[in-house]
Amino acid sequence: MKVSLEFSGGAELLVDGQKNHDVTLPDKEDGSKWTVKDLLAWIKDNLIDERPELFVQGDTVRPGILVLINGTDWELMDGPEYELCEGDAFVFISTLHGG
């Protein structure tokens, strides 16, 4: 399954400063569908090299990170339980900034 990921607002610093990622997710061994919860674990294991706690907290994103699925707030689309579709576009925007 192919999806696109965009990191901005500082979240891109967690993925080597690269804002856009087109990724192909492998089929799951049990044949189940990918959820955003699964995607977050995949991002943590495959894209984030240091300090994953700045992105994920448990099986969801850390407070202060806005998640959009195809331009819509993920809270309106079942949040972490949303089942991914081919070609989905995910945007992760950090809203927390030091001062």
TrEMBL record:
<feature type="modified residue" description="1-thioglycine">
    <location>
        <position position="99"/>
    </location>
</feature>
<dbReference type="InterPro" id="IPR015221">
    <property type="entry name" value="Urm1"/>
</dbReference>
<feature type="cross-link" description="Glycyl lysine isopeptide (Gly-Lys) (interchain with K-? in acceptor proteins)">
    <location>
        <position position="99"/>
    </location>
</feature>
<keyword id="KW-0819">tRNA processing</keyword>
<comment type="similarity">
    <text>Belongs to the URM1 family.</text>
</comment>
<dbReference type="InterPro" id="IPR012675">
    <property type="entry name" value="Beta-grasp_dom_sf"/>
</dbReference>
<keyword id="KW-1017">Isopeptide bond</keyword>
<comment type="function">
    <text>Acts as a sulfur carrier required for 2-thiolation of mcm(5)S(2)U at tRNA wobble positions of cytosolic tRNA(Lys), tRNA(Glu) and tRNA(Gln). Serves as sulfur donor in tRNA 2-thiolation reaction by being thiocarboxylated (-COSH) at its C-terminus by the MOCS3/UBA4 homolog. The sulfur is then transferred to tRNA to form 2-thiolation of mcm(5)S(2)U. Also acts as a ubiquitin-like protein (UBL) that is covalently conjugated via an isopeptide bond to lysine residues of target proteins.</text>
</comment>
<dbReference type="GO" id="GO:0002098">
    <property type="term" value="P:tRNA wobble uridine modification"/>
</dbReference>
<keyword id="KW-0833">Ubl conjugation pathway</keyword>
<dbReference type="Pfam" id="PF09138">
    <property type="entry name" value="Urm1"/>
</dbReference>
<comment type="pathway">
    <text>tRNA modification; 5-methoxycarbonylmethyl-2-thiouridine-tRNA biosynthesis.</text>
</comment>
<dbReference type="GO" id="GO:0005829">
    <property type="term" value="C:cytosol"/>
</dbReference>
<dbReference type="InterPro" id="IPR016155">
    <property type="entry name" value="Mopterin_synth/thiamin_S_b"/>
</dbReference>
<keyword id="KW-0963">Cytoplasm</keyword>
<dbReference type="GO" id="GO:0032447">
    <property type="term" value="P:protein urmylation"/>
</dbReference>
<dbReference type="GO" id="GO:0034227">
    <property type="term" value="P:tRNA thio-modification"/>
</dbReference>
<protein>
    <recommendedName>
        <fullName>Ubiquitin-related modifier 1 homolog</fullName>
    </recommendedName>
</protein>
